[in-house]
Amino acid sequence: MADLQEKTRVVFSDGDEIILKDFFYTNYPVFSSFAAKYISDSVICEDIVQDIFIKFWENRKTFFNIYSVKAFFYKSIRNSCLDYIKHEKVKDKYIQYNIHHENSPQSFWEEVIRKEAHSIVYREINKLPEMGKNVLLLALEEKSNEEIAQELGIAVNTVKTHKSRAYQLLRKKLSGLVLYLILLNEKCL
Asked: Taking the complete model, does pTM exceed 0.85, yes or no?
């Protein structure tokens, strides 16, 4: 037992010392109560205080005396609580934004139209001749003509030719898509 207390003893450069266990049991309720001035959830407060104890233990050799330790705790607890509050506000704004946009009929129909258009375009791309389809799918991944040529083992000019032919075929097959999407948009919104 004395061996364990030696391991958890913190000696400061001014000669003062504390036993971590005693310091913890004496100050944990005080620090948790201090955190509760910022955050009403006691579990969050306790987590914050425990995290600060870990930080203290990891940096215990940097403190001059017990007063600098207590100052560290109060300042760290306050900053952690404020960070938590900021994070919660950002989270709440994000949730409110998403609820508003997800519940809006316009947003719903915009997503339906986007998914329909995507589905139709990819269905037509998959009907293209094999090489044209491969070239176009790689182009949609934002790969350059040179990267596509290297990946498919063909010349850059061949990539350009396949792209051109694929776009021509898609224009013909998808010419009605724009009209379909406009009509769908008007009916839905």
From this structure: no
- CA-based radius of gyration for the chain: 32
DSSP three-state, residue 19: strand
Q: How far is CA 38 from CA 35, 44, 50, 76, 92, in A?
A: 6, 11, 16, 13, 17
84: three-class secondary structure by DSSP: helix
Distance CA 134, CA 125 (A): 9
Query: How are beta strands 17-19 and 9-11 bridged, if at all?
Result: antiparallel
Q: Which of 97, 110, 123 is nearest to 184 (CA)?
A: 110
Per-position pLDDT tens, the chain of length 189: 444 445 688 887 777 788 888 888 999 999 999 999 999 999 999 999 999 999 998 888 888 888 888 999 999 999 999 999 999 888 888 777 766 666 666 666 677 777 877 888 888 889 989 999 999 899 888 899 999 999 999 999 999 999 999 888 888 887 776 666 666 656 554
Task: Say if residues 34 and 77 touch (Cβ distance below 8 Å).
Answer: yes
Q: Give the bridge partners for 11, in sequence order.
A: 17
